Amino acid sequence: MAEADGSLNPYLRAREAFRDAVERLGLEPAVYEILKQPLRFLEVAVPVVRDDGSLAVFTGYRSQHNDALGPTKGGLRFHPSVTADEVRALSMWMTVKSALLGLPYGGGKGGIAVDVDTLSEREIERLSREYIRAVSLIIGPEKDIPAPDVSTNPQIMAWMVDEYSRIRGENTFGLITGKPLVIGGSPGRLEATGRGLIHATRALAREMGLAFEGATVAVQGFGNVGSVAALLASRAGARVVAVSDKEGGLYRAQGLDLDRLLAYKRDHRRLAGFPEAEPITNAQLLELPVDILIPAALENQITAENAPRIQARIVAEGANGPTTPEADRILFDKGVMVLPDVLGNAGGVTVSYFEWVQNQTRYYWTETEVNERLETFMTRAMTAMHRMHARYGVPLRQAAYLVATARVAEAMRVRGWLK
Ligand code: NAD
Fold this sequence. Notes:
By secondary structure, the chain is of the alpha/beta class. Among the domains are: about 40-175, 3-Layer(aba) Sandwich (Rossmann fold), CATH 3.40.50.10860; about 190-345, NAD(P)-binding Rossmann-like Domain (Rossmann fold). Helix content is about 45%, strand content about 15%. Helix 1 crosses helix 14. The longest helix has 26 residues, at about 365-390. The structure holds nicotinamide-adenine-dinucleotide. Nicotinamide-adenine-dinucleotide binds near residues 244 and 320. This is Glutamate dehydrogenase. Belongs to the Glu/Leu/Phe/Val dehydrogenases family. InterPro entries: Aminoacid_DH-like_N_sf, Glu/Leu/Phe/Val/Trp_DH, Glu/Leu/Phe/Val/Trp_DH_C, Glu/Leu/Phe/Val/Trp_DH_dimer, Glu_DH, NAD(P)-bd_dom_sf, NAD_bind_Glu_DH.
C-alpha cells in the first residue's frame, strides 16, 4: 500500500529491506521466503468487564517474526492505531535489532487496539491480565518475552508477570522485562535507551574522526530518551546547544546547563520559560548548524521537505522512524551519516536482555555493571554495522539489515531450515 510520501506501509517496507539484504549478501532465496512474514501471528479477543459491569471486547495481537537465534522478544503497546500489519512490521524490526546487537533473541511484538485514556486503572489491570491469559500458550521465558512500549509501563508488566505466574503456579519473573525493581527489574533500565544512544553516537563519531568532546548537539524531544541523551552528551563533553519538547525548543549557543534545565523541567513539567536560553521552534531546531542532531520525539520528523536543509554531520535516531525513506536518500547523498533507530534506540532491549539474564540466573548486577556491559554491546554493534557500511558502500540503516540478516540466515542454515 503506497502512502502519501510515496513510501510503503511499514510491513511492506520491512519486507523490502530483508529482500534487499538477502540479494546483496547473495543468500539463498529461502532466507527471504522465511523472513518475509512472521513465523507465528496470533490475534486474540480480549474481554474486559468495565467498572459499570458491562463487557467490552478489544482486539490484541502477538507476532513472533523469527526465533532462529533464540526466543522472540519485543514490546507490547496499547494504542488505538495498533493494527495487525503494524505489529508484524515492528516484530520484524525487533529481529533486526536483536540480531544486530548480538542478543540471543528473535523478534517479537504485541499490541492491543485500545485508548487507555478511556479506561480506569482497574480496567487497565483487567485488560492486561486478560491479554496474558489469551496469549499465555505462546509466550514464556524460553519462548517469547514481552516488554513495555507505547502506553505500557512497569506496573502493567507487574500485573502481567503476576497473571502468568498464577497460571503456571510458579513465579516466572523471566516472562517479561521492564518490571519494577522489587520483582526482578534491572537497575539502569529506565535510562538505558538514552544512554545506549550516546554510546553508539560516540562510537560513530570515532569512526568518522569527529571529536565528540566539544561537538555541538541538538536534541528534539526531552522525554525518557531525549533528556537522558542530552544529559549524557553534555557529561561526555559535547555542547548541547538546543533541546525541545512538544511545545517548542530552547537554544543557547554557548551550551545549555543540563542539570539546571532538568531541575526546571522537574519543577515546571515543561521547557518553555527556562530563563537562560532563547526560544526556537522544533522546525528550526532540526535545521541548526550543529555536528550532531538527535531526533528523540516522534516518527517522520525529517522528510523530503526539510532534509536538504539539515546541516548536522550525524543524525542519531533515538525515536523510532524519525527519518522518512526519501529523506534518508537525500541525507546519504549529502554525506550526512544517519545512525539508524535499530541501533540508536537498542539500549532498551539490550538492558531488557540483561534483566532476563538476571531473572534466569537469580543473580542481580549493580547499575555500574549494567552500564559497562551496555557500552560493550552498543560499541560492538556499531563496529559490525560500520564495517558492513564500508564494505558494501550502503547507508548505515541498510548495513544494519545486512549484519542482522547474515546472522539470522546463518542460524537458520545450521538449524537446517533452509534446505
Ligand atoms: P516520552 O514520551 O518520554 O518523550 C517524548 C518527548 O517528545 C517529550 O519531551 C514530548 O514533549 C516530545 N514531543 C512530543 N511531540 C513532539 C513534537 N511534535 N515535536 C517535538 N517534540 C515532541 O517518550 P520516549 O520514551 O522518550 O520515546 C521517544 C521516542 O523514542 C519514541 O519514538 C519511542 O518510540 C522511541 N523509543 C523509546 C524507547 C524507550 O526506552 N523509552 C525505546 C525505543 C524507542
